[in-house]
Write a structure and sequence with these properties.
Largest sheet: 8 strands, mixed
Bound molecules: S-adenosyl-L-homocysteine, N,N-dimethyl-L-histidine
Number of strands: 25
Structural class: alpha/beta
Strand content: 15-25%
Distance between the termini: 47 Å
Helix content: 25-40%
C-alpha cells in the first residue's frame, strides 16, 4: 500500500500511477485478439495475423505465454492506433469468413458468444479507463459532450421492499448465454430481508461525510480503515471540495455533485462503512438476485446506474465448472479476495446485464461505476410511501444515524403563519434589512427587465417583499409565485390580485426543487427569477447549485435572477435571530412535530423537545435542532424510532454567505453575477444574476 508522503494532497495521490487502467487502443486491440486466440487459433493450420501482438494484447492468460504487465500498458506507444484498427479490421474479416463457414460444434458457438460479451465488458472498461485518464489532468477535460449512457435514470420510489426469504434458487439456468461463474443454478436459504427501493444518493453520502464517516474508525473494517488512512480517503473517488460545495469528475468534465444522483466510485470498504453508519448492511448476492427476479418493478435503477456492492465474497458456486480450454482462465482464477457486485451501470451496454450476473472487484477498487443499495434484516416497512413525500422524508430522516428532516415541511398553514410572525420579531433582522435594500436597488434593476417580463418567485410566502419589485416594474406581464404552502400562496395571490389589478397572477403550488416552466398564460416575455429571504441558505450547497442550475434552464437564455442572501456576521446576532425571546422561533420549530402528529398520525410530544439554535462555523450556517429532553420512542404506523436523551433532530440549516461564496455559487450553476449589493448592518446581500 502506498504511504502518504508528507505534503502530498489526496489529489496528488490520485494522480499517482493507476495500475488497473489501460489505454483505449489497448481495449480495441485486446477484444479482437480475444476472438483470434479463443476461436480462430483453435483451427488447424491457422496463422496468426502478427505474432508480436500476442504479448501486447494478452490480458491475463498464463497459458498463452509472455505478456505486457497491465500496469505497463499506459506506456503503449506502439502499435499506433492505425495499426490497431488495421488489426481489428483483419480479425473482423477473418471472423466474418468463419461465420460464413458456420461455427463448428463443440465449444465454438459458446466461445463466439463469450467473445461478444467480453467485448461488451471492455466497452464499459473503456469508459472507466477514459474517465480515470481524464481525472488526472489539471484541465478536467470532458471526454464526451453528453454522458454516454444506456437509458434515463429511473425516478426514486422511496422506502424498502421486504421479502420473506426461505428456500430459493439463484444462478443461471441452462438457457441463454451466461458466464461460467453464474452457473450452476443452485438452491440457497434466505432469512427474511429487505432491500432499499432506491440506490444510495450523493446527498446520503454527503451526510456520511459530514458526520465524520471517513474519520471514525468504528464504521470500518480493519483493511478498509487502513486504506482510508494510507490513501487519505475523504470522499468517493473523483470528488473534490470547492468553495461552492463538492464537485466530481465525470465523463463530461468536472461537475457539481448532484445530490439526487446515485453515488458512484465508492469501494466495497466505503460501501460497507456507509451501511454500518446507516444502521443497515449490504445485501448478499443471493438476496439481490432473489429480489431482482421476484419483484423488479419495486426497485428503481436495478441496472443502468451503478453496479451495487454486495456482502458476498466472489467464490465458486457449488458444482462450479470453468469453461474448458484457454477460457478457463476467464473468471475462475479470480475467485479469492474479491467481492461480488450486482446490477449494471449506466455505461454497461444494453442487454449485457442479467439477474444472475456476477461482477467482481477487489474491495479497495473505486474506478468502476460502483455504488450502493442498502439491505436490512427482516421487514423494514410494509408499504412504500412514494405517494406521500412527507411520510417518506420522515422515515428516511428518523432512520438516519444523525436524525434530520427537510425544512420545507415547516410550512403548513400554521408554519407559514409562524414564519410571518418571525419576520416581525425585533431579533429577526433579515426580512427588514432585505426589504430596505430591495427598495434601494429595485428601481435600477427593474429598469433592465424590458417589456412584458414575467416575475417568477420561489418560496413566495406572503409575497410582501414582492410588492417592492412590482412597484418598481409597472409593466410586468405576469407574476408567478411558487410555494409549497397552499394557504400562504393562495392568500398572498388574492391580496396581490386585489392591489395590482392589471397584473396576471398565476400561483403554482409546488416544490421549487422541481421547477416547471411558467404557465403558458404568462406569455413569452423575459423571465425574472426572484428568490429572496435567503431561503437558498436552507438548501445544502449542492442542492442550491442544482436549484439555480435548473432555474437557469427553466427561465432560459437572457433571463435575470434576483437572489437574496443573508451574510456572515457575529454569532450573537445570528443566534438571537434564531432563538428569539418570545419563543416564536421555538414554536415554529416544534410545529414540525405538531404537523407530523396531525398529518402522519405520529405521537411526538412537542413539549418534550428543546428548541436549539447554534452557529456552525465549519459550514457557515445557523442550525436549528429539536433536542429530546429524555429517552423516548415515537411511532409512525408500525415503525418505531428511538431518541436517546439529548439526541437531536436537525430541522434546518440557514447558510450564511459572503460575496465570494455567492459568486462561486452563481458560477457553479452557470449564472453570471452582474451586481452584488450589501445593505447596512446587520447586513444582507442581494445579487443580480444574468443567464
Ligand atoms: N420569500 C419570503 C418567504 C420566505 S419563507 C420571504 O422572504 O420572507 C420560505 C418560503 O419558502 C415559505 O413560504 C415556504 O413555504 C417556501 N418553501 C420552503 N421550501 C420550499 C420548497 N421546497 N418549494 C417551494 N416552496 C418552499
Ligand atoms: C425561510 N428561511 C430563509 C428562514 C431562515 O432564516 O432560514 C426560516 C427561518 N428559520 C428560523 N427562522 C426563520
Amino acid at each position: 500500500m502506498p504511504q502518504l508522503a508528507a505534503g502530498l494532497s489526496a489529489e496528488d495521490l490520485a494522480a499517482q500511477s493507476m495500475p488497473d487502467a489501460s489505454p483505449g487502443k489497448w481495449h480495441l486491440g485486446h477484444v479482437s485478439w480475444f476472438f483470434e486466440t479463443m476461436i480462430l487459433a483453435g483451427r488447424p493450420g491457422y496463422r496468426v495475423v502478427d505474432e508480436r501482438l500476442n504479448a501486447v494484447f494478452n490480458s491475463y492468460y498464463e497459458a498463452l505465454g509472455e505478456r505486457v504487465e497491465r500496469a505497463e500498458r499506459g506506456l503503449m506507444t506502439r502499435p499506433s492506433l492505425a495499426e490497431v484498427m488495421a488489426y481489428r479490421a483483419e480479425i473482423d474479416r477473418r471472423m466474418e469468413a468463419w461465420l460464413a463457414e458456420g461455427p463448428g460444434d463443440g465449444l465454438e458457438p459458446y466461445l463466439f458468444a463469450l467473445g461478444l460479451h467480453h467485448e461488451q465488458q471492455h466497452q464499459e472498461l473503456f469508459l472507466m479507463d477514459v474517465l480515470n485518464l481524464m481525472s488526472r489532468s489539471r484541465l478536467d477535460p470532458a471526454a464526451y459532450e453528453a454522458e454516454p449512457r444506456v437509458g434515463e435514470r429511473e425516478a426514486r420510489l422511496g422506502g424498502w421492499v421486504s421479502f420473506e426469504g426461505g428456500l430459493t434458487q439463484i444462478g443461471a439456468g441452462d438457457d441463454g448465454f451466461a458466464f461460467d461463474n453464474e452457473r450452476p443454478a443452485h438452491r440457497v436459504w434466505l432469512e427474511p430481508f429487505s432491500l432499499a427501493a432506491d440506490l444510495t444518493t450523493n446527498a446520503d453520502w454527503i451526510e456520511f461525510i459530514d458526520d465524520g464517516g471517513y474519520r471514525r474508525a468504528e464504521f470500518w473494517l480493519a483493511d478498509g480503515w487502513a486504506r482510508v488512512k494510507a490513501e487519505a480517503w475523504a470522499a468517493p473517488l473523483y470528488w473534490r471540495e470547492e468553495a461552492a460545495g463538492w464537485s466530481v469528475m465525470t465523463l463530461t468534465g468536472r461537475r457539481p455533485v448532484d445530490p439526487t444522483a446515485p453515488v458512484r466510485h465508492v469501494s466495497f470498504y466505503e460501501a460497507d462503512a456507509f451501511a454500518r453508519w446507516s444502521g443497515r448492511r449490504l445485501p448478499t448476492e443471493a438476496e439481490w438476485e432473489q429480489a431482482a427476479r421476484a419483484d423488479p418493478a419495486a426497485f428503481s435503477n436495478l441496472t443502468g446506474e451503478v453496479w451495487q456492492w454486495t456482502a458476498s465474497a466472489y467464490a465458486p458456486y457449488p458444482g462450479f465448472c470453468p469453461t474448458e480450454g484457454t477460457a478457463a482462465e476467464y473468471n475462475g482464477k479470480f475467485m479469492a479476495n474479491q467481492m461480488v457486485l450486482r446490477g449494471g451501470a449506466f455505461a454497461t451496454p444494453e442487454g449485457h446485464a442479467r439477474p444472475s450476473y456476477r461482477n467482481f472487484y477487489y474491495p479497495h477498487q473505486r474506478w468502476m461505476f460502483a455504488g450502493v443499495r442498502l439491505a436490512a434484516d427482516g421487514a423494514v416497512i410494509e408499504e412504500t410511501g412514494a405517494h406521500d413525500a412527507f411520510r417518506q422524508d420522515m422515515i428516511d430522516g428518523l432512520s438516519r444515524r444523525v436524525k434530520a428532516l427537510p425544512p420545507k415541511w415547516f410550512y403548513d398553514a400554521e408554519g407559514s403563519r409562524l414564519f410571518e410572525e418571525i419576520t416581525r420579531l425585533p431579533e429577526y433582522y433579515p426580512t427588514r434589512q432585505e426589504a430596505a435594500l430591495l427598495r434601494r436597488v429595485a428601481p435600477e434593476w427593474a429598469g433592465r427587465f424590458g417589456p412584458d417580463a414575467v416575475l417568477v418567485e420561489l418560496g413566495s410566502g406572503a409575497s410582501e417583499k414582492t410588492r417592492i419589485v412590482l412597484d418598481a416594474a409597472r409593466d410586468l406581464a405576469a407574476y408567478v409565485p411558487i410555494d409549497i404552502s397552499p394557504s400562504a400562496l393562495n392568500e398572498a395571490a388574492d391580496r396581490i390580485r386585489a392591489d395590482y389589478p392589471g397584473l396576471k397572477v398565476l400561483p403554482v403550488v409546488g416544490d421549487f426543487e422541481h421547477l416547471a416552466p411558467p404557465p403558458v398564460e404568462a406569455g413569452q416575455g423575459r423571465r425574472i427569477g426572484f428568490f429572496p429571504g435567503s431561503t437558498i441558505g436552507n438548501l445544502t450547497p449542492e442542492a442550491a447549485i442544482a436549484l439555480l442550475r435548473s432555474a437557469r434552464e427553466v427561465l432560459g437564455e437572457g433571463s435575470l435572477f434576483i437572489l437574496g442572501v443573508d451574510l456572515v456576521k457575529s454569532p450573537e446576532v445570528l443566534v438571537a435571530a434564531y432563538d428569539d425571546a418570545q419563543g416564536v422561533t421555538a414554536a415554529f420549530n416544534r410545529n414540525l412535530l405538531v404537523r407530523a402528529n396531525r398529518d402522519l398520525g405520529m405521537d411526538f410530544e412537542p413539549e418534550a423537545f428543546d428548541h436549539v439554535a447554534l452557529w456552525n462555523p465549519e459550514h457557515s450556517r445557523m442550525e436549528m435542532h429539536l433536542r429530546a429532553m429524555r429517552p423516548m420512542t415515537v411511532r409512525l404506523g408500525k415503525l418505531a424510532f428511538r431518541f436517546a436523551a439529548g439526541e437531536t433532530v436537525h430541522t434546518e440549516s440557514s447558510r450564511k454567505f459572503d460575496e465570494a461564496s455567492v459568486t462561486a455559487l452563481a458560477q457553479a450553476a452557470g449564472w453570471r453575477l452582474e451586481a452584488f449589493e450589501v445593505g447596512p448592518e446587520p447586513a444582507v446581500g442581494l445579487a443580480l444574476l444574468v443567464a
